[in-house]
Amino acid sequence: MQVLKFGGSSVADATRMSQVIDIVLPAVARERTILVCSAVSGCTDALIAIGAETDAERRAQQIETLRRRHHGMARRLFTGAERREMTEELDGLFAELSAAPGEDCVTFGELFSTRILARKFACEGVATQWLDSRELVRTLGGVVAEGLTYAKILSAVDGAPDCRLFVAPGFIASDGDGRVTTLGRGGSDYSAALFAAGARASTLEIWTDVPGIMTANPKVVPAAATIPDISYKAALTLAENGAKVLYAPTVKPAMEAGIAFSIRNTFDPRHPGTLVSGRPAVKEGEWMGVTSLTHAEKGETSVCLVGEAIPGRASAAGRICAALSEAGIQPLGEVTGEGDAFFIRVRPTVEQAAVAAIHHEFFESRAVTVIPVFVAGYGAVGHELVRLIGLSAERIATRRGRSIRILGLSDSRRFVADLRGIRPEDAEKRLEGGENAAEGAFIDAMLACAPRGAVFVDCTDDMQLHRRYAEIFRGGISIVTSNRRSLALPYVQYAALKAEARQNGAFFRYDTTVGTSLPILESIASDANCSDGIESIEAVVSCTLNYIITAYDGAKRDSLGTLLRRAQDVGLTEADPRTDLGGQDVLRKLLILAREAGVPLEAEDVEIVPMLPREFFDCPLEEFYGKLAVYEPQFVAREAELDAAGQRQRFMASLRRDPSARLGYRAEIKMQRVGPESPFYWISGTENVTVVHSEYSAPLVIKGAGEGVRLAATGIIKDILM
Predict the structure, then answer these.
(1) 342 lies in some domain
(2) Which of 103, 257, 363, 437 could connect to 197 by a Cys-Cys bridge, CB 3.0–4.6 Å?
């Protein structure tokens, strides 16, 4: 007999229930199994709210919302008569919920989830029996009556010898008077241990959404690693002192019965997780983990470091104090504890810093700072970014003492988030098997799991994603973006984002939005933030237009329409190339340039003279290309005129000091003629040039390639590591 327990995140919806079924079916084929399950994620909180609701109408609405959620899962998992039977069974349970007293509402969540699973396994042809934990798990005086509970569980299992799978709700029990009660939040783990001990199981597996017990909370310490093997005692100490992955009462029944149990990740079933047993395979003096628990009533936090067979306490205590001192943390007392457990008290405000400092001292063998990264957008730039992170990892670690670890990745359809990290070479495959990214699910998942100090990288061209930036900053997460569409906002919104980043100790970097990997923005910001004020900025920053303009040679080569179609075909232009021709992309870049120079420029402050007359923009795209062909002789004539004058034309953005202008600067985007004396004369293809004139310094000319996915990815890595 074996016992498998799945938590609420593992059965959150029909897709995840299907993943559970995929894990359980092979297990059932090997050995008789008891499946213990939590309520679907969020259900228990909803039931608590329902129980506390005194308004009958609102209570009914809340129940209906929960009913619809479970009905939706049934519709996904069942068809035909099986679906009707399942929904009828659910409706019966929800009728009971509607009639239940407030204090009993919380006990229904596990009934819903396990009824669905039990019926689904039966439909799969598995000999299945649902067990009512309210009849089997008994408490007396608020404490589980283990002898009575074990006898009832063993009788139920032995009484159905032909059954391959028993499905039982976790968390719930009944007291001496037969009234339904609970085993506390996290009690489903405890239920599973009771079933394992009672059924005399050989193994117990607790499946959750993390890869086992870790050396620290990965949301606090990105370098935390899974503990492969740990003793009952050490696991219990960590659980009692803040490690939330394991509910502390779970350990006792398993330990007394001598049942080794493992903690596994439902979303990565190949990972071995953590094995908890009486004989851990560790060397003497090996450290297990560091955790913390805040005692609000005392106004202090207790940080706990746990090891196995630690030979001497004095040196370990000295290392703890030294690590805290180096981090600038003053403890509230001496190191206490006994045996392999060490405790030190700190102020709650430095809780995370204290855990990180002790973890760094005892668990991180190399002085490499791990930077956790979540990447949104897996197009050309995102794909190249992930690839370069993998290729350059060793070099970055050696030269910079830092390591970029990808914890999340998303495209427009799917996402994956894994606190253990996503190997760059596995990224595409992991993303294909990821979760639905609709309605901002990736951002929600990141905010729920990302450690403070993580970096969100926006490689998308999404016009709306910036609406989540402030929320991301408030989560202590920095942002690196190459998405200039999200920066061309009204200035008040732009300034608010910058302020939000500062206030939350995060950084906001977007150097690749103008000039890709060229140091344009940092150079302008450096001048603007020092005593050397900006007099003017002139820039050719549209790779698209420069590619077309510099390739055009009148009647000698391809027509302007041919060049434009070619640029569109290779992805240099927007879907409608007139967005580029009209100067909209250049406008976004000019706004960013101006604001880095300290000028709160708005779009309406910029005078734009498009490359073409208005009638080219007010027609369907194919008609536009037709008009372009008709207009070609005028382009040829203009090119001949330029050749005769020894000049070239460039589509330029400019910001010049002008006391008469609203902001003291005049901003323009238009075609300008330049001669050989100008640096703009000599550029070709997708090159960019920016010329910055300041009050006291000589003009600064920044020239280089302004396009290319590798350059963009390199620039993003630079922003992450700065």
Answers:
(1) yes
(2) 257
Q: Which residues pair with 6 in a beta bridge?
A: 37, 207
Tens digit of each residue's pLDDT (9 = 90 or more) over 384-441: 999 999 998 888 887 777 889 999 999 999 999 998 899 999 999 999 999 999 999 9
Residues 188 and 182: their CA atoms lie apart, in Å, by: 9
| Separation of alpha carbons 285 and 309, rounded Å | 5
Q: Based on the structure, what is the number of domains in the chain?
A: 4
Which residue range forms the structural domain that includes residue 314?
214-242+271-365
Angle between helices 80-99 and 56-77 (to 10 degrees): 160
- For the segment 6-33, the average pLDDT, to the nearest whole number, is 95
Q: Are 348 and 301 in contact (CB under 8 A)?
A: yes
Q: What is the DSSP letter of 700?
A: E
pLDDT in tens, 662-701: 999 999 999 999 999 999 999 888 888 999 998 877 788 9
Closest to 609 in 3D by CA, of 526, 669, 528: 669
Whether 713 maps to a domain, the answer reads no
Both structure tokens of 341? 């457990």
The Cα 469–Cα 475 span in angstroms is: 10
If asked whether residues 176 and 290 sit together in one domain, one would say no
The CATH number of whichever domain residue 317 belongs to comes to: 3.30.70.260
pLDDT score for 705: 79
Residue 688: half-sphere exposure toward Cβ, Cα within 13 Å: 25
Bridge partners, 509 (sequence order): 480
* CATH code of residue 47: 3.40.1160.10
- Boundary (domain end) residue, out of 209, 228, 253: 209
